[in-house]
What we know:
The protein is of the alpha+beta class. It folds into 2 domains: 25-63 and 145-193, no CATH class; 70-142, no CATH class. The protein is built from 3 helices and 5 strands, in the order ααβββββα. It has a 5-stranded antiparallel β-sheet with strand order 3-2-1-4-5. Helix 2 (25-69) packs antiparallel against helix 3. The model is unreliable at 87-95 (pLDDT under 50). Residues 81-100 are annotated as: Disordered. Keywords: Membrane, Transmembrane, Transmembrane helix. InterPro entries: MT1774/Rv1733c-like. It comes from Saccharomonospora marina XMU15. The chain crosses the membrane at residues 29-49, 151-173.
Amino acid sequence: MPDTSMYLLRLARRLRPGRSPVARGSDRIEAAALVIVVLLSLLTIPVVVTHGQRSYAHNRQIAEEAMGSRYETTATLLADTPSRPRAGRGPVSENGTRAQARWTTSEGIEFTGTVPASSGMSAGSEVPIWIDTAGEVTSSPTTPQDAAGHAAATAIATWLIAVGALSAAFWLLRAGLDQHRYARWAHEWARLNTGHGPP
């Protein structure tokens, strides 16, 4: 707690350097820049929220269109799947492997092809698959929940990038001000050492 109190005290002094009798112009510039960074970081929040809402609406529309053009059905495996995926022997799905299977569309048309399947399944086993209106195997559609999660992640990432850019600009400004202060200190010490007294 003492460390936190000291940090808050130093931050308050930076934000209000005019109350110090030894405050320099560079201190006031740094404090003003810090206030601007904080205010801009806060002002970007509604902008980011609006962007996230638009992203959600767009992704939700895509998800609804995908849900309308795909549906889930069941495929029957025509062969056993290997006990474990073989490296370099064709595409491997996140479920394990792919296998030959047969499925029927809602119109009664029968198709044969490869479908995602788990390792170690036997012929005749049934696996759920997603197919499009043409009866071809496709990926599962994005759900409205996925759209919401993607929009939230995009909004948070956008805000963090904005805050990071503002923080970087502030620290660059502070580094320049520090160099200016060090140069003035060196100049003042040089004047004192040569007997000219304070400027």
